[in-house]
């Protein structure tokens, strides 16, 4: 999911929000220094040491949809704070397909992959569709983590109001609201905000060439069927999170 901030591994709380909102389903890890590298060798041995007053962030798109991830992260630190960026699952699926198509020319049509037998049942075995079943994935996480450990960020609002959503992130992490609307400008060519220094200076940081690519044209009948399919899952997700993301 293309979003307006660049990923990075940072230790300074003042710039933490700029590191965490790059793709669908990213989580933020906050752990005491003694536990950051205590588990998951070798991958956790690559995490920077966290000192008092610092927050270490780590993000991976597949965490939210990986069944084993909650148990592993809980085993590392049950106090971990988790940030999940979500967008309309229909738009997300089409974006996923567009990214795959750019790397694999000759891929079957979106319709052929999303449905069985023409416009038959939706094929939830296809990852582009399955990832958008947010309620199912969240259920897996809530077996170990209370809802209070999560912040759900709207991908749509992150584009239309990046400062507002990043402000929520800073509040959730207990950080001073350093990143504000002065740090963003809208790039009409890419269709997304870019990050800049409030007082000018260095060049703005925008998404790379692989982000913001045009989506393939998908027949309205296909989009409508997917909207109908996702609607009950979306509504359950709204109830679980206490947020209406307005996808219906």
TrEMBL record:
Pfam families referenced in this protein's UniProt entry, alphabetically: Sulfotransfer_1
Positions of disulphide bridges: 194-206
SUPFAM superfamilies, per the entry: P-loop containing nucleoside triphosphate hydrolases
MF terms (GO), sorted A to Z: [heparan sulfate]-glucosamine 3-sulfotransferase activity
Statement: the UniProt record of this protein carries the keyword Transferase: yes
List of residues binding 3'-phosphoadenylyl sulfate: 87, 95, 211-215
UniProt keywords, alphabetically: Disulfide bond, Glycoprotein, Transferase
Keyword Transcription regulation included in the entry's annotation: no
EC number: 2.8.2.-
Domain annotation Sulfotransferase: ranges: 76-231
Family that this chain belongs to: Belongs to the sulfotransferase 1 family.
Protein name: Sulfotransferase
Organism placement in taxonomy: Eukaryota, Metazoa, Chordata, Craniata, Vertebrata
């Amino acid at each position: 999911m293309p979003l307006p901030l660049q990923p990075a591994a940072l230790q300074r709380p003042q710039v933490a929000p700029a590191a965490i909102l790059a793709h669908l389903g990213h989580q933020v890890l906050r752990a005491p220094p003694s536990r950051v590298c205590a588990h998951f060798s070798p991958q956790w041995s690559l995490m920077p040491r966290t000192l008092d007053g610092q927050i270490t962030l780590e993000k991976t798109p597949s965490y939210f949809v990986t069944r084993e991830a909650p148990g592993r992260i809980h085993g590392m630190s049950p106090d971990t704070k988790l940030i999940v960026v979500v967008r309309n699952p229909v738009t997300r699926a089409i974006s996923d397909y567009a990214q795959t198509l750019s790397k694999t020319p000759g891929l079957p049509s979106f319709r052929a992959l999303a449905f069985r037998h023409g416009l038959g049942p939706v094929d939830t075995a296809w990852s582009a569709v399955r990832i958008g079943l947010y309620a199912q994935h969240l259920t897996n996480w809530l077996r170990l983590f209370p809802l209070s450990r999560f912040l759900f960020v709207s991908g749509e609002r992150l584009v239309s109001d990046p400062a507002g959503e990043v402000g929520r992130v800073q509040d959730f992490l207990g950080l001073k609201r350093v990143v504000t609307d002065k740090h963003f400008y809208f790039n009409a060519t890419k269709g997304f905000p870019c990050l800049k220094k409030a007082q000018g200076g260095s060049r703005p940081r925008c998404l790379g060439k692989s982000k913001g690519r045009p989506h393939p044209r998908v027949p309205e009948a296909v989009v409508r069927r997917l909207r109908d399919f996702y609607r009950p899952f979306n509504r359950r997700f709204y109830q679980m999170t206490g947020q209406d993301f307005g996808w219906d």
